[in-house]
Amino acid sequence: MISMSKKILTGAAVLLVIAQTNICFANESDATVHPELRAYQAPEVGMERFVIALPEKSRAEEGNYKVEIIPGKLMETDGVNYNFVNYQLETRVVQGWGYTYYQISGAGEQGSTLIGVDPNAPKKTEFVAGQSLLVNYNSRLPLVVYGPTGSVVRYKIWQTSVTAQQIPRG
Length: 170
Prior knowledge:
mainly beta; five-stranded antiparallel sheet; 8% helix; flat
């Protein structure tokens, strides 16, 4: 029974986190980093633009990768309770180009579990995540996210095994 469960775990398409990074090109002079960035508008007042330049992969390789985009904020927490922020990502299209970008929506209000904590315990500044979004890997275009000033965007690159394994019946 143990070897069967090992086969299922190792044979299934197990996703591995291979990178987690937070990249923000803050000014227009950095737009030269990715040639397709010129298609994306500058952020509106009260907004920031976050740009993820993915490592180059062949089209055949890209099918084995996904990118999880995680909107959030750096917030003071008690370090004990699970915290979240009500951010979601909306998919939008650059008019005239057809490129996809993502807009953070939601008021950014914080919620948490209600575990009792020593009131004298020190507070911690932590990344508090909103609802993440899993998108296809495309190294030919930048991943662009617009969010309210003060928001933070992180991402994870997920990789699956090259071949899919059949799960036994039973």
